[in-house]
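Exam revision sheet. Question 4 asks you to relate a sequence to its structure. Input first:
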Amino acid sequence: MKTEFKNVVIFLGPLLILPALFVIWPLIELMVLSLKHKVILFEIDRWAGLENYQYLLGKDARFWGALGNTLYFTVCSVGLELVLGLMFALYLRFGKESAWIKVILLLPWAIPNVVSARLWQWMLHPEVGIINHVLLTLGWINEPVLWLSDPTLALNAAILADIWKTTPLITLLLFAGLQRIPETILSAAKVDRTPPVRFLFYILLPQLNPMLMTAMILRGLDAFRVFDVIYVMTGGGPANSTETLSIYAYRTYFQSLQFGYGSSIALTQVILMLAMTWIIMNAFSSKWDRS
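Answer key, structure tokens:
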């Protein structure tokens, strides 16, 4: 018994200590800081209790605007990425194999986020951007479109850039899931001449449920904390129309130097991310129970 306990401590000890140091401890510090009024610029550091959260949830219209932008970005990005990723994964699994097509599909994922965002920023430039140039040449628009300066278009432009960048990740995950489906199931469906739509919704998707849940959680968490793509392309503007929770927390922390209030924003974002993960896992678990 002592030997077994010793082995557990040796092999699992580092795995338990490292998360405690790099995850749990910072979260505790964040929780404590969120309960304070701490403004470095004015040397304010006093206990506030739940005052930060009361103002955040009750009076801070900017927070609700950032939350709305974050939810819109997450739902649109992840939803479209799942659809496109599934289409590409199905083509790679059942279509004609071609190495160069796989390379093209994976190329956006290999580009760093900041480089990708800057690339799209130049492509969407109203005067020298290639997108306006092509649309003007085709006669689809009569004048350059202000993609990143129009409050109604800027967030959608950032969503487009994010979809282009991260769809390959969804493709890889779903392609791996398709590869794990037993050949006997696919052969039986082929022998029975199962219609394509029925084959997709009643055979492939149920088999892909675990991988779909993984892809949705990974991309949902990543999209909900989006920062770099939007910050590089728009900086959260124009008029805060693309400001997300991460950008709002960053500005509160490092521009306004309100460490206490910024911590309350960040911790609220963490709680919402945990809630989103719980909802997704329960939704897929209920599907497995029904099946």
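Marking note for examiners. The longest helix spans residues 61-94.
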